[in-house]
């Protein structure tokens, strides 16, 4: 697998996890950033670093949301055509991947700044939280995944 693809995948996984935390802070999710601050017993500097991560993800999320409807409409129009224009469809997907790739270095640097400020115990707690959150999301996606609804 190409190195760029690996970086994009890792960035998407990290962004999704931390994005979920940010989403929770907006009152829409189950796990708020304040709860993480409390559980990890973050110092003032660590809290500032964590807040920087949250703000960066909020900004990126808003930017992505602005273009989501246009991309969706483009894809729907391509799917409504008699023949799918594969080059245009790939272009829409590459545009989104490029946006993620362009933001990845700054996001990774901000995340690294936060995680590098953690103690080994706090890192372990954060790893456990992220692992639990990923397991939860995996279970949830399995429940609502392809075919949707309840599984027998």
Instruction: Please write the string of helix (H) and strand (E) elements.
Output: HHHHH
Helix content: over 70%
Shape: elongated
User: Could you tell me how far the N terminus lies from the C terminus, measured between alpha carbons in angstroms?
Assistant: 35 Å
* Beta content: under 5%
> Which structural class do the helices and strands define?
mainly alpha
Low-confidence region ranges: none
- The oligomeric status of these chains comes to single chain
Number of strands: 0
User: Major sheet: size, sense and barrel closure?
Assistant: none
Task: Report Rg.
Answer: 18 Å
Average predicted confidence as pLDDT: 80
Helix count?
A: 5
Task: Explain what the structure shows.
The protein is mainly alpha-helical. The chain is built from five helices and no strands. Helix 1 (3-25) crosses helix 3, helix 1 crosses helix 4 and helix 3 (44-80) runs antiparallel to helix 4 (86-116). It is elongated. The protein starts with a helix and ends in an 8-residue tail after the last helix. The model has no long low-confidence stretch (mean pLDDT 80).
Please describe the structure with a list of short key phrases separated by commas or semicolons.
82% helix, single chain, mainly alpha, elongated, 152 residues, 5 helices
List the helices and strands and how they pair.
Blueprint lengths: L2 H23 L7 H8 L3 H37 L5 H31 L3 H25 L8
Helix pairs in contact: 1-3, 1-4, 3-4
């Amino acid at each position: 697998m190409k190195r760029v693809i690996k970086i994009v995948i890792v960035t998407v996984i990290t962004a999704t996890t931390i994005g979920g935390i940010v989403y929770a802070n907006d009152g829409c999710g189950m796990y708020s950033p304040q709860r993480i601050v409390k559980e990890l017993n973050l110092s003032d500097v660590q809290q500032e670093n964590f807040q920087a991560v949250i703000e960066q993800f909020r900004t990126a999320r808003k930017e992505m949301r602005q273009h989501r409807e246009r991309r969706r409409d483009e894809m729907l129009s391509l799917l409504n055509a008699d023949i799918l224009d594969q080059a245009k469809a790939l272009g829409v997907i590459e545009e989104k991947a490029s946006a993620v790739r362009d933001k990845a270095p700054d996001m990774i640097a901000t995340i690294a700044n936060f995680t590098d400020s953690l103690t080994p115990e706090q890192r372990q707690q954060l790893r456990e939280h992220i692992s639990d959150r990923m397991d939860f999301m995996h279970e949830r996606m399995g429940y609502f995944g392809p075919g949707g609804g309840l599984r027998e």
